[in-house]
From TrEMBL:
Source superkingdom: Bacteria
CDD domains per record: FruK_PfkB_like
Name this protein carries in UniProt: Phosphofructokinase
Species of provenance: Vibrio caribbeanicus ATCC BAA-2122
PANTHER family, sorted: 1-PHOSPHOFRUCTOKINASE, 1-PHOSPHOFRUCTOKINASE-RELATED
Function summary: Catalyzes the ATP-dependent phosphorylation of fructose-l-phosphate to fructose-l,6-bisphosphate.
Length: 329
């Protein structure tokens, strides 16, 4: 038996995020960090944090280095998440994020801990054991060395055959492999969409046409992130666009993961489409106003929701129209 608010997040390649703030990044020189912090992170883990704050019962799984797992374990306790990570000998990677005064963020990402076939098989056993009691799965982030991308394809296909809803948010080879299995939900940003389709998109209008292309047919929910310009969502032939109010951006780290969490929560709560997209978009907009991932001010959330516009794109007429409320299918 499954429960409505139970969700599994899968992070195949977690990391400690070392974030440093500085005035300007000068290449080839010594740079002085003004403030810094280290947090256990990973796209699926970020999604789990927000979902837990929203009220979901979260189980986290994936691969994790056994030698430096303490901070992750403490985080899972703090957010009341069930820890089902497969431990691997070695250390979980540390990634570096440099945030400049002008809000530009430079990421230095390391490849991650190497996984073996046995490690992958152990995770697969864990995953499908969890499928007996959970209906929602979020597979997010990059893949570690040694992990065959086609396993993403196989897992998504099997989970969906079992009637599960799979939210898939990845990039590069993992994204290309994963969409073959037609996940229930994908969320590329405009650069990832360009890479996926093999062509550069320079406008929102170009995105409208490509997300209805045959290459992406049968993916029930396609969301394209446009940064401060909001998001586009294609579902059952209907395209909606949400645009949040202008925000005072502190950091964009985790904003996309916050959107995925908000969207997943909205689906679990059976929100009407119009309300769901507004909720997830506002949640993501609020995330850029702070450094840490997670929710902390429901009043601000409500204010941003009230200022977030949602419109429907008329494919035949190539124009935006006020949206009619509908149910997600």
């Amino acid at each position: 038996m499954t429960q409505k608010n139970r969700v599994v997040t899968i992070t195949l390649n977690p990391a400690y995020d070392m974030t440093g703030a500085l005035a300007d990044l000068k290449l080839g020189q010594v740079n002085q960090i003004q403030t810094g912090q280290i947090n256990p992170a990973g796209k699926g883990i970020n999604v789990a944090r927000v979902l837990s704050d929203l009220g979901a019962q979260v189980t986290v799984t994936g691969f994790m280095g056994a030698d430096n797992s303490a901070s992750f374990e403490q985080l899972f306790q703090d957010i009341n998440a069930q820890d089902q990570f497969v431990r691997i000998p070695g250390v979980t990677r540390t990634n570096v994020k440099l945030v400049e005064k002008n809000k530009r963020v430079s990421d230095i990402n390391f490849p991650g801990i190497h996984v073996t076939t046995d490690d992958v098989d152990k995770l697969e056993i864990t995953l499908f054991k969890l499928a007996k009691t959970h209906d929602y799965f979020v597979l997010a982030g990059s893949i570690p060395p040694g992990f065959p991308p086609e396993r993403c394809t196989a897992w998504i296909e099997k989970l969906q055959r079992l009637g599960k809803k799979v939210f898939f948010d990845s990039s590069s080879d993992a994204l290309k492999a994963g969409i073959v299995s037609k996940p229930w939900f994908i969320k590329p940003n405009i650069d990832e969409l360009s890479q996926l389709m093999g062509q550069q998109f320079n406008s929102v209008e170009e995105c409208y046409s490509v997300i209805t292309s045959p290459n992406l047919i049968n993916i029930e929910n396609i969301v394209v992130s446009l940064g401060e310009q909001g998001v586009i969502w294609l579902n059952q032939g209907q395209i909606l666009r949400a645009v949040p109010p202008k925000m005072n951006v502190i950091s964009t780290v985790g904003a996309g993961d916050t959107f995925v969490a908000g969207f997943c929560w909205g689906v679990m709560q059976e929100m009407p489409k119009h309300d769901l997209l507004r909720f997830a978009t506002a949640l993501s907009a609020l995330a850029v106003t702070k450094i840490n991932v997670g929710l902390d001010n429901s009043k601000n959330q409500s204010q941003i929701e009230s200022k977030t516009t949602v419109t429907e794109y008329d494919i035949a007429c190539h124009q935006l129209n006020p949206d009619k409320r509908g149910e997600i299918r």
